[in-house]
Amino acid sequence: MYLHLGQDTVVKEREILGIFDLDTSTISKHTRDFLAKSEKAGNVVNVSDELPKSFILCSGKNGDKLYISQLSSKTLLKRKNR
After folding, report:
1. Helix or strand or coil: residue 74?
2. What is the three-class DSSP state of 75?
3. By Cβ atoms counted within 10 A, which residue in 33, 40, 53, 80 is the most buried?
4. Looking at residue 81, what DSSP letter applies?
5. Quick one: pLDDT at residue 6?
6. What pLDDT is stored for residue 77 in this prediction?
């Protein structure tokens, strides 16, 4: 199955390692450091130009990717569980 992250972006559900809320998860310095390192490595895909609400960490054949989405983590989890 696939999960629609917003705009024209979909990922395979089995590749999803985690769905995180940006407001609560970025309180931790470790998470902020991880996001900064991922961006420097070119592993971040911004799904929308709108205000980001969540990020999705995926592992695939080409390595890890981090998707920034305007959809909330609750909305993405609801879509995943359908």
Report:
1. helix
2. helix
3. 53
4. T
5. 87
6. 92
Spatial separation of the C-alpha atoms in residues 3 and 75, rounded to whole Å = 11
- Cross-sheet strand order for the sheet of 16-21: 16-21, 54-60, 63-69, 44-46
**pLDDT digits 0-9 by tens, 27-73:** 999 999 999 999 999 999 999 889 999 999 999 888 899 999 999 99
CA nearest to 22, candidates 75, 70, 77, 58: 70
**Backbone Cα Rg of the chain:** 12
Residues 68, 52: Cα–Cα separation, whole Å: 6
Q: State the pTM of this model.
A: 0.91
Residue at token pair 């310095």:
29
Selected residue with higher pLDDT from 70 and 7: 70
**For residue 61, what are its two tokens?**
């054949």
